[in-house]
Amino acid sequence: MAATTQHATGRRFVFIDLYRSVVILLMLEGHTVRALLDTNLQQSVLFRFHEFFHGLSAPAFLFGAGLTFVVSTRNRWVEYHHWGPPLAKRVARLVLILALGMAIHLPYFSIRKIISNGSEADFLQLFECDVLHCIGLGLLALHGIVFFFRSEERFYGLVLAVVAGACFLTPLVWDIDVAQHVPVFITQLLNSLHGSPFPLFPYIGFLFAGVIVSWEFMIAQQRNSTGRFMRRLAMLGGGLIAVGLISDALPLQVYPVYNFWYTSPSYFFIRTGSLFLLCSIAWHVADRWQPSNKLFVVAGQESLFIYVVHLPLLYGSVINPVQNLTTFLGPHQQVGATVGITALVVAIMILLALGWNYVKRKHFNQYRLLQLILGGWFLVELFTRDN
């Protein structure tokens, strides 16, 4: 997610930005509809059908982060075997992503108040694990594997083992409440029993699955067989969906507690297969259509920016918890109004992303200065406020 595909020349890497653009727009649509659509309409069968597709956005986001990891790492593989400027720069970016994840979940805009008055619920909120935590920790873990194991075969095997572990161990991990035995930040990483929206189990598996696909894609590219690989990826995706549906229908009880929508390996197969299909479709579209207009890929290139900015717009933030669309409009809108507002939110986010991308490309020094000013102001306020 923190990486881009700009270092890869030619059309064969445009599909990653196109894929991520589709994912980020799907996320914006889903969040806006869920926040504003009338609660009575949210009980309908059509809305539950919508929720299945919206439920793919977080796994797809993580899968995209895995795709970019190999693209941005494999050509500099040896440089990441030891500590130096390239690895230090990459680690600093990932720590920033983790810091952004924590900032989004701050219960108060004051470190002093959190320390002196924070309740158990406040600390559970502060350490909730979401998409940014999965990305930051997942990519740090991947760099740890590269750093310590170095061998590409061991790297591939360990990544594949993590995917399998996330798939098959999630029902067991979610069945254990470890809050009384480990620190709260570890509790929140493991499962959703205390409110984490996207804990490492099973969501880290989608990120590592993206790494596997990207790795195989790079090998196929070297062999000039990317088209064949993408066709096989689509077939594998369809096969995983079929396996997920069939395994759920079988009258077998493997785990003590079975929850299809949250922990089941069957649903993991279905979602992973769907991501394989989406990835393959994005490649074929980019290969045939070649979207040269920045409008079609900028959302993917600036996915982190859009993710962070749209949250306070929709839900508010610790800095300004009142003035947001959910407070102003609430879940009371009919379908037509919801569609219109969603289109407006998407348009605003794309325009902001275009502006942010332009400043980054054309005025990089000013872009860095703006980052430092905003980050410095936030930290000063956070550490000096009393409440």
What oligomeric state do these chains adopt?
single chain
**Extended strand count:** 0
Helix content: over 70%
Major β-sheet profile: none
Rough outline: globular
Q: Bin the strand percentage.
A: under 5%
Describe the protein.
The protein is an all-alpha fold and 387 residues long. The chain has one domain (11-384). Helices cover 71% and strands 0% of the residues. It contains 17 helices and no strands. It has helices spanning 14-36, 45-54, 57-73, 85-104, 111-117, 120-126, 131-149, 152-173, 184-190, 200-222, 226-249, 265-289, 298-301, 303-315, 325-329, 335-362, 364-384. Helix 1 (14-36) runs antiparallel to helix 2 (45-54), helix 7 packs antiparallel against helix 8 (152-173) and helix 14 (303-315) crosses helix 16 (335-362). The protein starts with 13 loop residues before the first helix and ends with a helix. Residues 1-12 have low confidence and may be disordered.
Question: How are the secondary structure elements laid out?
Answer:
Elements: H1 14-36, H2 45-54, H3 57-73, H4 85-104, H5 111-117, H6 120-126, H7 131-149, H8 152-173, H9 184-190, H10 200-222, H11 226-249, H12 265-289, H13 298-301, H14 303-315, H15 325-329, H16 335-362, H17 364-384
Helix pairs in contact: 1-2, 1-3, 1-12, 1-14, 1-16, 3-7, 3-10, 4-7, 7-8, 7-10, 8-10, 10-11, 11-12, 14-16, 16-17
